[in-house]
């Protein structure tokens, strides 16, 4: 097969310029700054709070999306109702809609003078400019992941497996819990991890609705931007490395889930 | 348990899968539903198992109307063409599934479930595979596990959809005898669907030849071979 | 089974009890509840924000909305975003084809690692991506200093924005092509080669027709993301009005200046672009499902 040199050349060159060298530059910056200094930076109260907030809110949002995404996938594959195709296409909207647009739109809706925000205000529930706002924005950006990974798996479930469970005397809910759910788990967890990874690093949709109060609603990526605006490259790099480590950890988890599920369930 | 099928018909939308058919199966018989694809044999089997609902007609179990019974209430041991084993469970858990799924009040305890599963594994002559996953089994082993799983619920009858369809010729022969043995040992009324006339003739006490949603002939294998009732049966059997 | 029906000769003796349902279905009540729950959830989370973009843009009428898009800075932002997208798109397409060709046509060690590296940008925060580019090409870095000295600035200039955009959209095309090309195997290309066709000719006449819809699909995903990229661009662009402010950056600046109509008008235009890509993508899924990666076929 021809083209080995050309395709390898293009791939490696672009991979290096676009991805590897920039990430390498971040790691170099970190190495010059020193591990102890990075640790001190990350441990500053404001930085630690921001990192923990980003991770915590991403986790909550991804958990919400895990449950909602599986239900949504089930409804879209199994049920027929008017408007299903539109709903199916709309699941991708959070992928397509620019994050800054999502950010200002969600803020307009959920601010105290917005349509939903004013309703929530009446029962004393403040959404925008609180951690609820961050949660909401992260749910929005992570919405498609679980649904899109689980949908094809539901489509491929052999109906005879469900029938077998019923002929063995299992109720529908027993079948759903003990037969269907375990089949969906690997895909759902992959989607969950993807949504989590996306939400941890999310910036555009969050900063408008978060209020950005240090220690309370200030997310880690915003802190990087602030450090950069003050030309504090060392601190920015330290926070960046901490976030990069979180990303790597999640990438590892995704791969482990896939290896594990391939081993367990395999292909008949 | 004897089964009586009374004027059962089934329509899918505008197409008719079964014209009204009537059939009596005495308790303990091993019956083959024989016919080409599209003859309605699988539909009839699924109606017996409660997986499809007849458009009209009744099903009687031991003289009692069972038409309205749900799948779960029928207690029919069903073996699917694809075996439909639960891939994420071990062989042991597959066989134990029906017992573990029972409501707490009538669920056997753990040791009792283990005892019964072990017994079934012995019955299918695969005593050592309880810890394996279905993907680690051969086709013939899967079929036998599916059979054991269906037997675990102490079924009132055994229904099998093309039980040998996915197997190669050699394994097929072995497992035919296996099914016959299990039938004789349990004494269960057993209905299996097949398109292979040798299989039907060799294995069944009673053969029901079907075509185009109708029953062409009901009889013992010898009768069917020697006295085919219709031209279709003659052609199908001599093929 | 009612007795009355038994005595009516000829009547279809349907024994279907009112409660009958297929054993593989949930109860009608459960189905309705699930449909209502998910649809209303999507309405609140997805449809409402979409609608509010347009209602806010038109809060002062069409004239105000259109006028706000007409000024010089707005025009420059639109031009910049389209330019960036037009540069990033072919770069990613070329990379995607090259990477997919390398991965699916050849066997070599470390292939899984290479795929992981290609996927890496998906799991890196856009802001961190921007940070990396600033650290590599910024004025106080080794390379950046040299480039600035030779009047070729990358950070706070268009090349930096392109680089940031390519980074965040890097895996899209390759991700679409790899499964499709794996499924199609190598036999067709090998057959063409034995007939004496040159490598380019094989690619052009055999491979490309097989992958064109998947390629278009990946490019569409890439385009949608490229036009809307905010976090990475916010870091590298320097946000210079009329020069390095893309549409999303302009939206942020207008919004922070409380120019709501102008911000949402720009947002509505960008949303229009996004909806267009979504529409094309859905059309592709319906029309050419068999030519796309398996997980888009529903």
Would you kindly provide a written description of the structure presented here, covering whatever features stand out?
- Chain A is 81% helix and 0% strand.
- Chain A has 13 helices and no strands.
- Chain A is globular, with a radius of gyration of 22 Å.
- The model of chain A has no long low-confidence stretch (mean pLDDT 93).
- Chain B has 239 residues and is an alpha/beta fold.
- Chain B has 2 domains: 1-75 and 155-239, Rossmann fold (3-Layer(aba) Sandwich); 86-154, no CATH class.
- Chain B contains 9 helices and 10 strands.
- Chain B has helices at residues 41-49, 71-74, 91-100, 110-123, 139-152, 169-186, 197-203, 221-226, 231-238; strands spanning 3-12, 15-25, 30-34, 56-61, 64-65, 76-79, 157-161, 189-194, 206-211, 214-219.
- In chain B, the strands form 2 sheets. In chain B, strands 6-7-8-3-9-10 form a 6-stranded mixed sheet, with helices on both faces. In chain B, strands 2-1-4-5 form a 4-stranded antiparallel sheet, covered by helices on one side.
- The longest helix of chain B has 18 residues, at 169-186.
- Chain C has 298 residues and is mostly helical.
- Helix content of chain C is 74%, strand content 0%.
- Chain C contains 14 helices and no strands.
- In chain C, helix 2 (28-57) packs across helix 14 (260-287) and helix 10 runs antiparallel to helix 11 (199-228).
- At the A-C interface, helix 1, helix 3, helix 4, helix 5 and helix 6 of A face helix 2, helix 4, helix 5, helix 6 and helix 8 of C.
What secondary-structure arrangement, pairings included, does this model have?
The complex is a heterotrimer of chains A (268), B (239) and C (298).
Chain A: H1 4-33, H2 35-43, H3 45-78, H4 84-90, H5 93-96, H6 99-110, H7 115-122, H8 131-155, H9 159-167, H10 172-200, H11 204-210, H12 220-229, H13 233-265
Chain B: E1 3-12, E2 15-25, E3 30-34, H1 41-49, E4 56-61, E5 64-65, H2 71-74, E6 76-79, H3 91-100, H4 110-123, H5 139-152, E7 157-161, H6 169-186, E8 189-194, H7 197-203, E9 206-211, E10 214-219, H8 221-226, H9 231-238
Parallel strand pairs in B: 3-8, 3-9, 6-7, 7-8
Antiparallel strand pairs in B: 1-2, 1-4, 4-5, 9-10
Chain C: H1 3-7, H2 28-57, H3 61-70, H4 72-105, H5 111-123, H6 126-137, H7 142-149, H8 158-169, H9 172-184, H10 187-194, H11 199-228, H12 231-237, H13 247-256, H14 260-287
């Amino acid at each position: 097969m021809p083209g080995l040199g050309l395709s390898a050349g293009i791939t490696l060159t672009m991979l290096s310029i676009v991805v590897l060298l920039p990430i390498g530059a971040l790691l170099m910056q970190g190495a010059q700054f020193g591990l102890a200094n990075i640790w001190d930076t990350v441990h500053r109260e404001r930085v630690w709070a921001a990192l923990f907030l980003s991770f915590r809110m991403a986790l909550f949002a991804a958990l919400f999306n895990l449950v909602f995404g599986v239900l949504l996938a089930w409804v879209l594959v199994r049920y027929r109702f008017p408007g299903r195709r539109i709903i199916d296409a709309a699941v991708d909207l959070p992928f397509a809609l620019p994050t800054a647009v999502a950010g200002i739109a969600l803020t307009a809706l959920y601010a105290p003078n917005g349509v939903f925000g004013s309703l929530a205000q009446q029962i004393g529930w403040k959404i925008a400019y609180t951690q609820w706002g961050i949660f909401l924005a992260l749910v929005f950006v992570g919405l498609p992941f679980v649904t899109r990974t689980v949908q094809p798996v539901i489509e491929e479930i052999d109906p005879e497996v469900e029938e077998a469970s019923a002929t063995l005397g299992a109720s529908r809910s027993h079948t759903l819990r003990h037969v269907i759910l375990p089949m969906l788990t690997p895909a759902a967890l992959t989607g969950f991890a993807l949504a989590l990874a996306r939400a941890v690093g999310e910036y555009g949709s969050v900063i408008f609705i978060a209020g950005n109060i240090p220690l309370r609603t200030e997310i880690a990526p915003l802190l990087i931007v602030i450090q950069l605006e003050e030309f504090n490259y060392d601190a920015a790099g330290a926070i960046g490395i901490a976030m990069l480590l979180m990303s790597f950890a999640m990438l590892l988890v995704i791969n482990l889930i896939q290896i594990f599920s391939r081993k367990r369930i395999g292909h008949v | 348990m004897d089964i009586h099928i009374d004027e059962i018909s089934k329509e899918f939308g505008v197409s008719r899968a079964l014209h009204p058919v009537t059939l009596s199966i005495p308790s303990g018989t091993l019956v083959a539903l024989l016919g080409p694809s599209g003859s309605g044999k699988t539909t009839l089997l699924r109606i017996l198992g409660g997986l499809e609902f007849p458009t009209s007609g009744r099903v009687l179990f031991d003289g009692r109307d069972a038409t309205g019974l749900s799948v779960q209430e029928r207690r029919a041991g069903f073996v699917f063409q694809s075996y439909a084993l639960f891939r994420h469970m071990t062989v042991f858990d597959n066989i134990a599934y029906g017992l573990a799924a029972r409501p707490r009040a009538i669920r056997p305890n753990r040791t009792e479930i283990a005892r019964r599963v072990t017994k079934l594994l012995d019955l299918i002559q695969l005593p050592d595979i309880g810890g394996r996953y279905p993907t680690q089994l051969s086709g013939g082993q899967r079929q036998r596990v599916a059979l054991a799983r269906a037997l675990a619920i102490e079924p009132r009858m055994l229904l099998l959809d093309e039980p040998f369809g996915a197997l190669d010729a050699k394994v097929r022969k072995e497992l035919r005898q296996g099914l016959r043995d299990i039938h004789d040992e349990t004494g269960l009324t057993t209905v299996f669907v097949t398109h292979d006339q040798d299989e039907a003739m060799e294995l069944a006490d009673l053969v029901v030849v079907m075509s185009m949603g109708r029953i062409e002939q009901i009889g013992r294998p010898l009768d069917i071979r020697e006295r085919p009732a219709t031209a279709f049966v003659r052609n199908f059997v001599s093929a | 089974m009612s007795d009355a029906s038994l005595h009516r000769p000829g009547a279809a003796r349907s024994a279907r009890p009112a409660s009958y349902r297929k054993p593989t279905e949930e109860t009608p009540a459960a189905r309705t509840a699930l449909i209502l729950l998910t649809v209303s959830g999507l309405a609140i989370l997805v449809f409402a924000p979409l609608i509010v973009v347009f209602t806010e843009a038109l809060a002062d009428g069409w004239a105000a909305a259109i006028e706000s898009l007409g000024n010089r800075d707005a025009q420059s932002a639109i031009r910049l975003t389209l330019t960036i997208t037009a540069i990033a798109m072919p770069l990613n397409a070329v990379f995607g084809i090259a990477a997919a060709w390398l991965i699916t046509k050849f066997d070599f060690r470390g292939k899984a690692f290479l795929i992981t590296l290609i996927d890496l940008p998906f799991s890196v925060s856009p802001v961190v991506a921007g940070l990396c580019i600033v650290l590599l090409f910024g004025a106080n870095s080794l390379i950046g200093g040299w480039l600035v000295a030779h009047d070729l600035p990358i950070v706070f200039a268009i090349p930096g924005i392109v680089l940031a955009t390519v980074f965040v959209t890097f895996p899209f095309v390759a991700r679409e092509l790899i499964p499709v090309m794996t499924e199609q195997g190598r036999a067709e290309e090998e057959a063409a080669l034995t007939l004496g066709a040159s490598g380019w000719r094989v690619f052009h006449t055999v491979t490309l027709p097989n992958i064109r819809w998947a390629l278009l699909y990946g490019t569409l995903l890439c385009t949608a993301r490229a036009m809307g990229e905010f976090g990475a661009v916010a870091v590298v662009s320097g946000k210079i009005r009329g020069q390095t402010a893309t549409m999303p950056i302009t939206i942020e600046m207008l919004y922070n200046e409380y120019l709501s109509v102008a911000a949402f008008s720009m947002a509505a235009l960008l949303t229009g672009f996004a909806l267009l890509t979504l529409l094309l993508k859905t059309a592709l899924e319906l029309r050419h499902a068999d030519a796309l990666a398996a997980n888009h076929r529903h």
